[in-house]
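Late entry, evening session. Most of the bench is empty. Finally got around to the prediction I had been postponing all week. Sequence below, unchanged from the version circulated by S.P.
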Amino acid sequence: MRFFKPTLVVAFLFVPGFVHADVNPTLSIRNLVDSSDLIIVGTVERVQKTGAGSVVLSARDYERLDFQAEIRVDETIKGETAVSRFILNYSTPSADNWGNVANGSLEANTHGVVFLQKTAQGYAFENPYTPFLATTPKSCGPNWRVKLGEDAYHKVLQRLLAVLCMPSSPGEKNWALARLNWDEDSSAAPFLKAALGLPEIQSDAVARTSILSDLLAWKDLSVLPLAEQELFDPSRRTPGYLKSNLVLGMSRLGPQLSVPLLARALKLTEPEGRVAAARFLEYTNSQDAIDVLLTDLDDPDREVQFAVMTSLGNLTNQHWWRPRTLDLDSHWSACIEHWREFEAQRNTNLEKK
């Protein structure tokens, strides 16, 4: 992700309890926990359609479907429930607190954490975008020593990440990792670091690089040698799109570390990695990044060149992206020429100093 995780982070296919939405805000597990009145963990055993109709949301008419879900409760993380089976009636679509429309729903034969708020009629999804986080019904076992905490937030994180230490598919592992928020969930770092040594994680390039990216984003320098090996050692055969996530994580280490690392990444053989390095050099907000980017105007890949010029424009507040003519090749040449003149003037100014 990350995490935030920008668009270069991998989108995974395993999404149980998924949410269809026109606008999907960045997931915040902490906010979900804090704003929920009831958080239960269990298996959704049955989801039955009970009715249909229409509903007006944000001044628009929508077709409404009514459902009843039966959940076998394993644990109540927050709130009070004395029942072993919880019956939830809900309708789709529904709206969040700001009036945005989403189709949050549950699926039968899935296990996870359900986030609910109390209403006059009973309970409803706290957030119709994320009513449910898929988990495994099993714990990591008695030999797993990492405990994140006994508060509701850390119990949810522990449940979510248990798929990393249990037999599970790569899709399940990577779906869980993709739920983490780089700005809020750094307390998950001990769990991820322990999981990094597991054979199932070591053999899964997506999970392995995702964990390394998370730990780098949380400034855990102990994993930097492993991340550099993934990024720069050709024998690892790490796909370019995964290297993009590592580059993003490195961009958060501070300019003294990140700029030299991203400068090396500009020389990767995979265009995806070079695009990421060029784009994320902007995030360092460093004057040194400008010099690095100016040396890469001759990259043979047009997308890399565009990323270089985009970052240069944002770092210097100079933008040359709107064509003055339909001749895009001429406009492109003019952009490169502009940055060459900028580089020459910059070098002249430095010599004067």
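Two things to note before I forget:
Confidence is low (pLDDT under 50) at residues 1-23.
Residues 8-169 form a domain with the OB fold (Dihydrolipoamide Acetyltransferase, E2P) fold (CATH 2.40.50).
Will write this up properly tomorrow.
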